[in-house]
Design goal:
This protein has 18 helices and no strands. The protein is mostly helical. It has one domain: Growth Hormone, Chain: A. The chain starts with a helix and ends in an 8-residue tail after the last helix.
Length: about 375
């Protein structure tokens, strides 16, 4: 399928927005030791910056998506990116932990709305039957966030300070908003009744899979820097190199999964869920530091496909109400992030980091069982 140059630029702009959104959301992961030291709190408290963010998204996304249901989709994306800019500017000058929490909540309020529209916007740009491909294209920004966004943020935090790293994210968000304003055309919203998006039984297996695999993934991923230090014996500026390798593996995984997700939705979903479990078991099995490091790096390949296969499943089971169905899916995703970060935080606070990896393995395995039995992951005839 040939894609017009204007459409390619528009998809690139949306992918850039995904990049900055994911980088901003996961800054506490990349800057965990610097934030803890700078704000005078424990590592587990920095993890709560992820938990609180996710909790706000989960609570606000459905009412805010309903409130903005008739907005032009481009305008919606621009407003939410503006909230990312404001959030990170305030975080960069935060004098204490309380202000840092408040700053994070600003971006959290717009986060769910952004993710409820971006995949459907991309799908509408490419046309019918291309939901998985469109999602993979724009979600490449996610993988690039882990490849460059988090590794560069980690490097900036180590060398120039975490406040400089946060300001850099704000600047990239502002630039991305400008590019979207110039390259993406106006796009009218689809606004079906809210109740249809909330109670649709066809989406239940997708949301259950989301809750299980995301909870597991973020129980470990929120503390990936701690896992790298413990199992790969890497710390300091070298951590950014491991994060870069992790992101590279994620980008490769996204490309492979994106090519197959529309044709083989169940197989790709099993790769992402089962792959998480396999990598965590390999990490927990112990062995030389290089083996553990390899498991951490390879972990990114199935993890990168989580959002693609799940969002594609949402578009597949709810083609006539993508925005609101995506909002409900985002609730499950953010509850998973909050639960995972909280469970991992409890394990870290009690000095039981391996438990966080164990939760990830269990979540991936349970999600794979749901995928195996659910019609939501069957190929559309």
């Amino acid at each position: 399928m040939l894609v017009e140059p204007r459409t390619r630029v528009a998809l690139g702009a949306l992918s850039a927005a995904c990049f900055v959104s994911v980088t901003s959301e996961n800054l506490p992961v990349a800057l965990l030791p610097q934030l803890a030291s700078g704000l005078g709190v424990a590592d587990s408290a920095v993890g709560l910056l992820m938990t609180g963010y996710a909790a706000v998204v989960a609570v606000t996304v459905v009412p805010l998506v309903a409130l903005t249901a008739r907005w032009d989709r481009r305008a919606t994306a621009l407003v939410t990116l503006g909230m990312v800019v404001v959030s990170n500017v305030v975080l960069a000058v935060a004098p204490n932990y309380g202000v840092a929490v408040a700053a994070r909540l600003v971006a959290a309020a717009g986060h769910g709305v952004f993710w409820s529209v971006v995949a459907s916007m991309a799908a509408r740009l490419l046309g019918p039957g291309q939901g998985g491909r469109a999602t993979a294209v724009v979600f490449a920004g996610n993988s690039l966030a882990f490849l460059f966004g988090l590794s560069v943020s980690s490097w900036l935090g180590t060398t120039l300070g975490w406040r400089v790293a946060v300001l850099a994210v704000a600047a990239v968000a502002a630039l991305t908003a400008l590019v979207i304003r110039v390259t993406v055309g106006q796009m009218a919203a689809l606004a079906p009744p809210v109740r249809r998006g909330v109670v649709d039984r066809a989406q239940v297996p997708v949301n259950l899979t989301t809750l299980l695999v995301v909870t597991g993934h973020f129980a470990a991923f929120t503390y990936i820097t701690a896992l790298i230090a413990r199992y790969a014996h890497v710390s300091g500026s070298a951590t950014s190199a491991v994060l870069f390798a992790h992101g590279t593996a994620g980008l490769a995984g996204l490309v492979l999964i994106g090519r197959r997700v529309d044709r083989s939705p169940r197989a790709t979903a099993l790769v992402t869920t089962g792959g998480l479990a396999v990598c965590m078991v390999a990490l927990l099995a112990g062995g030389p530091a290089w083996v553990s490091g390899a498991a951490i790096v390879v972990w990114a390949a199935p993890a990168a496909g989580i959002g693609v296969v799940l969002q594609a499943a949402v578009l597949r089971v709810a083609p006539d109400r993508p925005d609101l169905a995506s909002a409900v899916y985002i609730v499950a995703f953010q509850v998973g992030i909050a639960a995972g970060a909280a469970l991992g935080g409890l394990a870290v606070a009690k000095g039981m980091l391996p438990v966080a990896a164990g939760i990830a393995a269990a979540g991936g395995l349970a999600a794979a069982l749901v995928v195996r039995r659910s019609a939501a992951f069957e190929t559309v005839k």
